[in-house]
Amino acid sequence: MEKSCRPAGRRDAVETRTADPSDRASLEEDDTVELRVPDRERKLLHKIDEALAPIERGTYGWCDETGEAIGSARLIAWPTATLTVAAQQRREHRKRFTG
């Protein structure tokens, strides 16, 4: 991914040159998006690593809770699934009632 080449004091410089609040708001939004993208990429890489771990262990496609096969339809729809549909529903039900 490309990193921004903007100087650290860019916002201060823009605010002194840009009197229009809409322009400033747009530039601030650009800055916010630039800060969020690396965080999203880091989280995505973490999720990819988590998804690869069961493959490496030889447990991909098997429910973490019951040990049953998850089923190809579920894995096609949700490749990172670690629970069968029934196990996922039980977990969500427990979470709903226990907080």
From TrEMBL:
Which stretches of sequence are listed as region Disordered?
A: 1-31
Name the domain of life: Bacteria
Q: Which GO terms describe its molecular function?
A: zinc ion binding
Which ranges carry the Zinc finger DksA/TraR C4-type domain?
58-93
Keywords from UniProt, A to Z, are: Metal-binding, Zinc, Zinc-finger
- Domain DnaK suppressor protein DksA N-terminal: where? 16-55
Zinc fingers (dksA C4-type), renumbered ranges: 63-87
Question: What transmembrane ranges does the database entry give?
Answer: none
Family annotation (PANTHER family) = RNA POLYMERASE-BINDING TRANSCRIPTION FACTOR DKSA (PTHR33823:SF2), RNA POLYMERASE-BINDING TRANSCRIPTION FACTOR DKSA-RELATED (PTHR33823)
Q: What is this protein called?
A: Uncharacterized protein
